[in-house]
Each structure stands twice: as C-alpha cells, then as structure tokens.
Amino acid sequence: MSFFSLLAEVSAHVNFNELMGENPEIAVSVFGFPIRWYALAYLAGIFIGYWYLTKLIAQPGAPMARRHADDFVFYAMLGIIGGGRLGYVLFYNLDNYLADPVSVFRLWDGGMSLHGGALGVIIAIWYMCRKEKLNFLRFCDYVACVIPFGLFFGRIANFVNGELWGRTTDVSWGIIFPDSGSMEPRHPSQLYEAGMEGLVMMIILSWLFWRTDARYKPGLLFGVAALDYGISRFLIEFVREPDLQLAWLVQSTGLSMGQWLTVPMILIGLWAVMTAKGRRERVEPVAGPNSVAGAS
Which CA distances in Å does 68 have to 99, 150, 180? Predict the structure, then answer.
C-alpha cells in the first residue's frame, strides 16, 4: 500500500453502520426481549444521579433529608418521562399525534424532548417542596448538580442509536450516517452535546458546589445549569440537522425549535444567577449537622 493510499484510508470519514453494526440501539436481549441503550441511559442517569445526590445532601446545610431524596426519585422519573414525551408531542410533532393520538403512548417508537423533561422535573420539585415545605430554589440547586449525568448518558444513547445527527460537514471527524438519507459526512452533534451539556456542566457545577459557597445562595447552581444547557444547546443547534417536520421554522426564522425553546431557559438562568446573592440567608440544615451563617 502506497503512502498516499494509506493517507486516504486514514483520512476517510467513518461510516456509522460500520462503526456500530446492525441494530445498534439494542444493548442486549434477555430471553428474547430487547433492552435498548436509551432505556439503560435513563436508568444510569437516574440512579447515578440519585447516588450523587445522597453525597451532596450529606454536607452541612442541605435543603432536604435522605427520605426526601428517596421520594424524589419516583417523582423525577414521572417528570422526565411524562414531561419529555408531552414536550415532544407539543413542540415537535403535534400534527402527527393529533392524527394518531394512541401513538403518544408508544414510547418505544422514540420521541422525547429534553426541554419537556426539564419542565417535568421542575414541576416534580415544586410538588415535593410544597408537600414537604422545603425551599424550592435550594432544592433546584441540588437537583441541578445531578442533571449532567442524565444529559451525558442520554446524548451518548442518541449517538449509539444513530439519531439526531448533525448537518453535513467536511471536517475530518465527520461521520457518515446512512439513515440520514445521504452518504455525506455529518457533525456528530450528539457527542458535542454530551460534552457541553454533560461533562462541561458537570465540571462547572461540581467545582461551584465543592469549592465555593454557591450552594448557600439559592438559585445560583440552578441558574448556572440553565445557562450552560441553554447556551450549549443554542450554539450546537447551528450544526445539528433540524427535525424534518420543523424545517419550515428554520427557513422562516433562522432558528430551530430547540433554539427557540432555550431562549426562556437562558433568560431564567441569567435572572437566577444575577439575583442569587441577594437571596443568601441563614441556612438551617435538613440533613447536615451544622447551620450556615447568613450573608457576608
């Protein structure tokens, strides 16, 4: 093999089907029942997130006790699945679901919205806080710190499933997704999102929680998470292929549905961050051993 043919082979774009094989969405089959990567991603995000939440609330001044975290797992699952599905139905494919309402319940066919899931979790937090008389914003802060786990695993599952690919590109790391309808290389936007919405957010929130007094300023961690997700999603949408049924929105406004939905998230995040210092108060612990002094 000549040097130039070797160079051409090395620089050739990866074909997704050759990389992942047939039926990449199936992780394993148990007694003939297929277990999908997407289901495992949800479970990993929820249970690893729960484990990390128990570590957070073990620190002084936590806004909830272990029993609250235990109960919240159930409500969070309802919020993620119910909100995610309803968000996709309303924001991304309403006409199809109006024509076939029963398909709303066919979750195995795919179709979840992260914006809807986020709203579902916030509603679950509101319910928990009202029921148990807990501080809503401080509860949101602690939950925000575990969200990156779910976002990371979810985006990795999107990639493994060969869905939500990016727009065509000539960058060397572009990947050919045959299911996209063309053999042109595309941005692996799922991996960009896994990095920015998952890993980067995880690093930032972990540093703020463990190395600063951010958790004693109600709304700060929640605001940072909203800003990270909102800005990351808004920027990455420029290289992500828009949903076919919503291409008209991009053509008419220049922005995708995902970008429009992140605008209120960014604004709420800005408000939460900018006003957090003024909400600092003496924090009485629910789980930790010590109170935390008030504003400095």
Answer: 41, 20, 44
d(CA 170, CA 168): 7
Residue 253 is given by DSSP the state H
Which segments of the chain does DSSP mark as H helices, in order?
Answer: 3-11, 16-20, 37-57, 66-78, 84-91, 94-99, 114-132, 136-144, 147-161, 189-193, 201-211, 220-236, 247-253, 257-275
- The tokens of 146 are what? 């575990």
CA 135 to chain centre: 24
The position carrying tokens 């802060």 is: 141
Q: What is the DSSP string of 96-125?
A: HHHHSGGGGG-GGG----HHHHHHHHHHHH
Reported as half-sphere exposure (CB side, CA atoms, 13 A), residue 8 has a value of: 5
User: How far, in Å, CA of 80 to CA of 72, rounded?
Assistant: 12
Is the entire prediction scored with pTM above 0.90? no
The answer to whether residues 23 and 37 touch, using CB atoms and an 8 Å cutoff, is: no
Residue type, 29: S
Contacts of residue 220, Cβ cutoff 8 Å, sequence gap at least 6:
141, 208, 214, 272, 273, 276, 277
Helix (H) or strand (E) holding 34: strand 33-36
User: Do residues 84 and 116 make contact, with C-beta atoms less than 8 angstroms apart?
Assistant: yes
Q: Give the chain's mean pLDDT.
A: 87
Q: What is the pLDDT of residue 7?
A: 36
Cβ-Cβ contacts under 8 Å for 54 (sequence gap 6 or more)? 66, 69
87: three-class secondary structure by DSSP? helix
Neighbours of 256 (CB within 10 A): 21
Average pLDDT of the segment spanning 74-80: 92
